[in-house]
């Protein structure tokens, strides 16, 4: 018998994130994942600590923490602080930082460096002495200054593609987070979370509805961003892509375009992104989970059959509570 996945949500660290997390907790969301893109949002660890103090039971997760943004000791100490506030509620997923790094004008962290980083953080949490930057390091907190070691906080991997899966296996990660439902043979982990954007359609709505554009559009826009980031003018082949790129190039010189290309990533539409989403028409809804409640419930069944244990919904647009409520109702209907 297929086990249906739990439903969780991914949020940007904002001033309202604690209230949103409390609302998600009341709606039965299993976990709240937070983005780690300092150029685009507030600080991941400050927000997680606030949520840990402001909620009772909802799980907490990094979605996902990025090596090179922080020294391994800083990450290990931050993990300890949140773990102390919410024992047993935190998981830490680590990835190469595609958007976070590109927003800084840098390439994602190489997988070899990511694996080394995870191992260093794991060793620190276990109370071991680990070499970092050529010198031995260890969490040295006296009693009362941090939780005792070892800290049993799971370290997951954001795996995408053969290199990511190989890294997760090399690390013997207890769980992975992906951006699409895995194909047969693409995973073998007991815990597998999948990030999904989109919106639950109301009666009479379609791709031309303003609310749908604002709620589902940021997910499609993130694909436009990625195509431009990887291949520049290749974005011209997408509906409205040439106009999108022309606008980008007119606003900033070449060396500064990364500073505006990813604005609103998975959260809000800029005027430029809204135009490209509108130009895409119905195609803008296809990459995500957009449909009526029954279709969302069916997707939960499909994900469960593929071995997904947790669907992480990424709500977007001006009404995040409304998006969370509608998705939770659709998710719960899959259990009836």
UniProtKB/TrEMBL annotation:
User: What Pfam families does this protein's entry cite?
Assistant: Bac_luciferase
Keyword Metal-binding listed? The answer is no
**Gene Ontology molecular function terms on file:** coenzyme F420-dependent N5,N10-methenyltetrahydromethanopterin reductase activity; oxidoreductase activity, acting on paired donors, with incorporation or reduction of molecular oxygen
The signal peptide annotation in the UniProt record is: none
Keyword Oxidoreductase set for record: yes
EC no. given is 1.5.98.2
- The name this protein carries in UniProt is 5,10-methylenetetrahydromethanopterin reductase
């Amino acid at each position: 018998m297929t086990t249906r996945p739990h439903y969780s949500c991914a949020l940007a660290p904002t001033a309202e994130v604690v209230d949103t997390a409390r609302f998600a907790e009341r709606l039965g969301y299993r976990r709240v994942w937070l983005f780690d893109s300092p150029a685009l949002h507030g600080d991941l660890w400050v927000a997680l600590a606030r949520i840990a103090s402001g909620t009772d039971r909802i799980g907490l997760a990094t979605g996902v923490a990025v090596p090179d943004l922080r020294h391994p000791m800083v990450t290990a100490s931050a993990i300890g602080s949140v773990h102390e506030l919410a024992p047993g509620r935190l998981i830490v997923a680590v990835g190469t930082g595609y958007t976070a790094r590109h927003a800084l004008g840098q390439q994602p962290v190489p997988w070899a460096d990511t694996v080394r980083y995870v191992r260093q953080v794991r060793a620190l949490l276990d109370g071991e002495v680990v070499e970092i930057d050529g010198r031995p390091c260890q969490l040295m907190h006296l009693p009362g200054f941090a939780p005792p070691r070892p800290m049993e906080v799971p370290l997951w991997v954001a795996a995408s593609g053969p290199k990511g899966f190989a890294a997760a296996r090399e690390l013997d990660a207890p769980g992975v987070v992906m951006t699409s439902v895995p194909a047969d043979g693409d995973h073998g982990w007991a815990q597998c979370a999948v990030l999904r954007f989109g919106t639950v359609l109301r009666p009479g709505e379609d791709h031309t509805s303003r609310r749908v554009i604002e709620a589902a559009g940021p997910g499609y826009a993130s694909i436009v961003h990625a195509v431009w980031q990887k291949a520049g003018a290749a974005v011209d082949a997408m509906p409205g892509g040439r106009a999108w790129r022309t606008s980008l190039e007119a606003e900033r010189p070449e060396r500064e375009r990364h500073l505006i290309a990813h604005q609103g990533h998975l959260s809000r539409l800029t005027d430029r992104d809204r135009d490209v989403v509108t130009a895409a028409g119905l195609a803008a809804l296809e990459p995500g989970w957009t449909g009526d409640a029954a279709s969302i419930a069916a997707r939960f069944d499909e994900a469960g059959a593929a071995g997904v244990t947790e669907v992480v919904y990424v709500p977007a647009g001006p009404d995040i509570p409304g998006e969370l409520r509608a998705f939770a109702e659709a998710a719960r209907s899959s259990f009836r």
